[in-house]
Design the sequence.
């Protein structure tokens, strides 16, 4: 079992476009990944609905978890994605 | 001819016959469970997603973004698995989809704001999947034969995005809000639109209507003359407003600052680009409402920095946390109250939990230093001079130089002479002031007439507050909805109000109204409004006595 802690870099928080970009990336990795807020229970990272309902805001920490072959690589990619300001990138 | 009032979200006049957008079908009440429900549900959602995705290539970027976001919901494992789980528990497949859709919609609606409006996207996906299961045509806009005005309960984003703008002259919805998809897209596509129109449900195919996207009204069966007049008025207004720029002042040069009401980072960005002279009301509730524990000083400072940064050197009036029994916070819950509007809310809550207030003041102070914004801080729900003094001391101890109070309790207005001596400025919250003056609950739609800001008694209370401020040589502003009404703005200026804070979109018309009148004329209009017997009489008297050029574009 691997985990990563990431800080939300998107100024609008993890909803709208940033959530869509993250969920799409999470659907494309080879292992199932979960995402949780610091004091919440983990939800599937490939579900837009579940990810938006986390209500993670700019600067919040989230915990990514995955298991199996390629888990570490997948988590590195996704954690790095979360740390960026995806909304600013998407609109530019 | 009857006229119905909604919220105008996209300017312009549209006139044409109604086409009602097809309503979604509800699953049959006695739908039987089937053995292959899992397969059916997966197929239905996949078909919905493919259909939406197939349309992406034919629309512009904004519409494509919305279509792909909606398609993403249709492929969402939480939604699909949720429906399958319900089918396995004994529901029929369409019922299962409906149940899962509602479950997630409830979650979104509970989160409020942005999320509540995304609940419409989910409903759309659910309805399309239900139609697919039951082998019905997808709900939505029928094939249009000619030019028309669309009427819907709420237009799903996928529908709005793919509208044929050569045929759709106007849009009316029963639900929705200023920031709903319909509002955003209609404005972008320059289709006149009115949302939140209660009467929308009573409109039928073929009814002739005129949509006035500026006034937010819908005229049923208008005369040709009405339509021509409205079109001419809209054109005049457009050209007048295009030339309305600069500082707010009366014709003889008395300044009335025109400021923006904002509720978050996004609002701040929009306001900064709209030519306002600063922020007159920054509601900080959003910083707290979605948090499960009290946000730290650092977390708050970061948010305030983002809000302040477009306003370096300009005034930003921050209202400290306004919560209470009706807007409960998980970390500052004082329990259920019989009358939350009269209970421990606003400053009264801060008095019970001063550590929350101190953390907020510290964060505001840090953000103000970092950004160079001129942060003014004011407390909500101040009732007397002692409360004002208590708040002022705490704010100044936190290194903030300019402290004020909201005047929304009549007692504070009537005793403004003493209240204002304790602070540097005051700001009238006319919505709550009307509620407390007229003893009429703001949440009771039936009491709207009592809550009219033109109620002469409310204006008397405003006048008392303004006089109390002026005795002390302190500025008194208005930050309620009424500040954005151009006629009321003249009355307020005439009562000595020195700043008006409103939705930025209202600023150009108010600026124009002020520029057409001297201060003495404003004072005369204020006298007319206060002399009236009823709110209606007051507004009519001011409308009749104001500058004809202004009246002609209202």
Sequence:
């Amino acid at each position: 079992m691997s985990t990563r802690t990431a800080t939300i870099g998107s100024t609008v928080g993890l909803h709208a476009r940033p959530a869509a970009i993250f969920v799409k990336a999470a659907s494309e990795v080879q292992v199932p990944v979960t995402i949780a807020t610091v004091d919440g229970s983990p939800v599937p990272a490939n579900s837009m609905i579940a990810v938006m309902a986390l209500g993670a805001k700019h600067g919040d920490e989230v915990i990514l978890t995955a298991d199996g072959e390629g888990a570490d690589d997948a988590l590195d990619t996704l954690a790095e994605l979360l740390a960026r300001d995806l909304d600013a990138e998407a609109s530019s | 001819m009857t006229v119905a009032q909604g919220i105008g979200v996209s300017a312009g006049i549209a006139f044409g016959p109604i086409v009602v957008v097809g309503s979604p079908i509800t699953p049959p009440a006695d739908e039987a469970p089937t053995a292959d429900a899992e397969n059916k549900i997966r197929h239905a959602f996949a078909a919905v997603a493919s259909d939406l995705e197939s349309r992406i290539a034919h629309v512009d970027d904004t519409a494509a973004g919305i279509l792909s976001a909606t398609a993403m919901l249709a492929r969402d494992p939480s939604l699909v698995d949720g429906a399958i789980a319900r089918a396995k528990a004994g529901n029929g497949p369409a019922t299962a989809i409906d149940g899962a859709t509602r479950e997630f919609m409830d979650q979104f609606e509970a989160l409020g704001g942005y999320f509540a409006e995304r609940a419409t996207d989910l409903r759309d996906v659910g309805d399309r999947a239900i139609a697919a299961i039951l082998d019905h045509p997808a709900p939505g806009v029928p094939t249009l034969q000619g030019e028309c005005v669309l009427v819907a309960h709420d237009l799903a984003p996928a529908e709005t995005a793919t509208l044929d703008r050569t045929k759709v002259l106007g849009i009316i919805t029963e639900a929705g809000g200023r920031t709903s998809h319909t509002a955003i897209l209609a404005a972008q596509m320059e289709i006149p639109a009115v949302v939140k129109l209660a009467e929308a449900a009573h409109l039928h195919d073929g009814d002739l209507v005129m949509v006035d996207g500026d006034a937010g009204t819908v005229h049923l069966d208008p005369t040709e003359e009405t339509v021509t007049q409205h079109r001419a008025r809209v054109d005049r207004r457009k050209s007048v407003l295009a030339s309305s720029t600069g500082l707010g002042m009366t014709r003889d040069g008395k300044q009335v600052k025109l400021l923006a009401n904002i509720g978050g980072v996004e609002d701040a960005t929009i306001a900064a680009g709209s030519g306002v002279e600063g922020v007159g009301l920054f509601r900080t509730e959003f910083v707290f409402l979605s948090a499960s524990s009290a946000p730290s000083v650092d977390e708050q400072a970061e948010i305030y920095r983002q809000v302040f940064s477009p306003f370096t050197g300009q005034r930003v009036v921050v209202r400290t946390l306004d919560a209470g029994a009706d807007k409960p916070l998980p970390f500052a819950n004082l329990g259920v109250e019989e009358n939350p509007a009269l209970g421990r809310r606003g400053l009264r809550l801060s008095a019970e939990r001063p550590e929350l207030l101190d953390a907020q003041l510290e964060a505001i102070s840090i953000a103000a230093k970092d950004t160079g914004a001129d942060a003014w801080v004011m407390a909500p729900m101040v009732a007397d001079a002692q409360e004002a003094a208590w708040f002022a001391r705490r704010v100044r101890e936190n290194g903030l130089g300019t402290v004020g109070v909201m005047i929304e309790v009549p007692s504070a207005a009537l005793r403004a002479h003493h209240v204002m001596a304790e602070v540097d400025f005051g700001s009238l919250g006319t919505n709550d002031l009307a509620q407390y003056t007229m003893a009429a609950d703001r949440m009771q739609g039936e009491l709207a007439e009592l809550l009219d800001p033109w109620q002469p008694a409310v204006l008397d209370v405003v006048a008392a507050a303004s006089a109390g401020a002026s005795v002390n040589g302190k500025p008194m502003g208005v930050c309620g909805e009424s500040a954005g009404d151009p006629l009321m703005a003249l009355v307020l200026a005439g009562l000595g109000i020195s700043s008006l804070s409103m939705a930025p979109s209202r600023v150009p018309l108010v600026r124009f109204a002020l520029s057409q009148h001297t201060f003495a004329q404003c004072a005369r209009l204020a006298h007319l409004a206060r002399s009236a017997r009823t709110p209606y009489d007051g507004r009519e008297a001011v409308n009749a006595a104001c500058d004809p050029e202004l009246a002609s574009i209202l």
